Amino acid sequence: MNRLIEVARRRAGWGLYLGLALLALQIVAIAFAPWIAPYSPIEADPGRSLLAPSWRNIFGTDVSGMDIFSRVVFATRINLLISVLAVTLAFVIGVPIGLGIGFYKGWLSSLVMRIFDFIQSFPIFVLGMALVSVMGQEIWNVAIVLAVLFIPMFARLIRAEVLSLRERPFIAAARCSGATDLTIMFRHILPNALTPAIVQISISIGMAILLTAGLSFVGAGVRMPTPEWGLMVSSGAQQMILGVWWVALFPGLAIVISVLTFGLLGDAAKLITDPNSGGRQ
Length: 281
What we know:
With 281 residues, the protein is mainly alpha-helical. Helix content is 74%, strand content 0%.
């Protein structure tokens, strides 16, 4: 087993190391933002509006005179806080639901699946906008809305694994030994069904970052002057036609790097947990 894991790690190759390096960079930004950022991320200075990148403001300033580099650094906290919190809630809630509806068959399981079908029948972005509009444009509300959108995905992943595992001989042996349903579900089935959901966590965080930025871009996410990448891109998009490219470019690159980070880690996790998936990277 150890040899298989070591082979899988070698197959993950540069993607794993690049993902870890980019993740470390973001963790540093989160932990040391007050010391890295040279200016306040929310204090405007109208006298320094739309200054091009320079030694004093390496990413330039926005229309309100706020330092873009400082806002990009502090926005790492906001975007990753929302995304990680949303995916964590979805995982914690979705996994038990998927375990239950996969293990027990009946009208309740069918009803839950139809509710999931209803949620997933809407375009994610449109449904997210509607829910945020109803609940309010606060950081925690955005995280809760994203969690609601991701719960069906985790529940379906676990349910599919449970449906496969519940008919295996080792489950029948556990029943014959007198194990209760709860013991079978949480001791025998769940540990063997978690791998796809764990791999999905990293990918879902990247999706959550994109959705958070997208909601803020259209005005349905967090509000100004909160430093948030999508909000910054939205503000800068209005000046791009005038040749002011830096306001939208740098927060846009931050989104790309963050999503790439979790995409690479998700691919590496799949290779490590399932050495038979894919070829050499």
